Amino acid sequence: MDRYSRIVAWLKVLLPLAALALLSTLFLLSRNTDPVAAVPFADDELLDRVRDEQITGPFFSGTTTDGDRVSVAAGTMRTGLGKASEVEDLSAQIDMQSGTRIILFSDAGQFDMTNAQSNLTGNVVVTTSTGFKMTTDSLLADFDAMQVDAPQPVAATSPFGTLNAGQMRMERRGADENAHLIFTDGVKLIYDPTNLEE
Prior knowledge:
alpha+beta; lipopolysaccharide transport protein A fold; 14 strands
């Protein structure tokens, strides 16, 4: 056997042994990881998920006794011990029989499916198809009675200008009537007739 053949024969044995030695050092020098610690959830988040039932992306729709269509959606909903469920990123659309559309948004709140009521909190925005846009920090909505109350200060824009008020109430006096917006508690109106359509 010549010298070249002997080197090739030795390399056939030595190279796989060197590869095994390198692999064994990788496993020996690797750090032990706790599989539970690797889960990307905080302890508080895990406890919340176990304690409360949570629904992601819930959607509800229905019709009131007066024929108004109501649809409610949320980012997440957690059922609590009481009747009301905690919701985040709540949006609701009301299509009234009179033709008016009302859209509600809020960062968080509570939604009572049994009584069709909602308590919205945090960056509440109300827009109507009649051209009103209102912002407030808190809003109480009764979808069945079609009544909305804002007990905290409200800032609004409208087709005829801007206004600020300490409180706002939206109610409907008849099934086929439009909703009436009632602003109270220190109303300040800045009338801008240029916004009105001629």
